[in-house]
């Protein structure tokens, strides 16, 4: 029987089998090590990207603001319709001004994604939130910003900044200039705000 090798299956030697297993184990451990180092950062990036895209999609599918639907960004402060009032250099007022003591917290009128936290000449310190239907909500002349940054998600009522007189409002009574932009054009926020 021993002499007749025909009926025996070809067996790899013990040493070569052990070597094979060892090589596979080393390769597997190598992969595990690489994935362990790389995967958390990849998956975090992927997760936040997917979440951001989902938030954008769901915002765009929501209704644009309708009449009397938005809360006052400065609760209890008086709303006056100053839309269209004459401004310097032939401009007309593309929003409304709501007056309050310097430093009064400004609440986002909608949920949305912060698209700007920064300065411009007229508005001074400004915050822009893109809300339902893709409408842009513009808050200007801030004294300071809340702890927010572009691409942050905010909920309705979240504080986005504080009333001031920055930009071309310097020296005037502190107020927030609130503007709404739909498809790039300013619309009057006054009818859209809740009056109580
Ligand atoms: Zn204004």
Automatic annotation (TrEMBL):
The chain crosses the membrane at residues 14-35. It comes from the Bacteria. Keywords: Membrane, Transmembrane, Transmembrane helix. Gene3D superfamilies: Glucose Permease (Domain IIA). It holds the Pfam family Peptidase_M23. Residues 92-189 form the M23ase beta-sheet core domain. This is M23 family peptidase. It comes from Psychrobacter pocilloporae.
């Amino acid at each position: 029987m021993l002499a007749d090798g025909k009926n025996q299956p070809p067996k790899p030697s013990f040493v070569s089998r052990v070597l094979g297993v060892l090589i596979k184990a080393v390769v597997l451990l190598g992969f595990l090590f690489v994935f362990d180092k790389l995967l958390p950062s990849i998956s975090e990036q992927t997760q936040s990207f997917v979440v951001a895209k989902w938030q954008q999609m769901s915002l765009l599918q929501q209704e644009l603001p309708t009449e009397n639907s938005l809360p006052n960004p400065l609760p209890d402060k008086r709303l006056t319709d100053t839309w269209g009032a004459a401004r310097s250099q032939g401009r007309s007022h593309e929003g409304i001004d709501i007056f309050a003591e310097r430093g009064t917290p400004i609440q986002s009128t909608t949920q949305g994604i912060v698209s700007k936290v920064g300065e411009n000449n007229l508005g001074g310190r400004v915050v822009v939130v893109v809300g339902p239907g893709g409408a842009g909500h513009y808050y200007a002349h801030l004294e300071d910003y809340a702890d927010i940054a572009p691409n942050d998600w905010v909920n309705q009522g979240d504080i986005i900044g504080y009333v001031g007189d920055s930009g071309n409002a310097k020296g005037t009574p502190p107020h927030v200039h609130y503007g709404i932009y739909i498809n790039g054009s300013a619309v009057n926020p006054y009818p859209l705000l809740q009056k109580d």
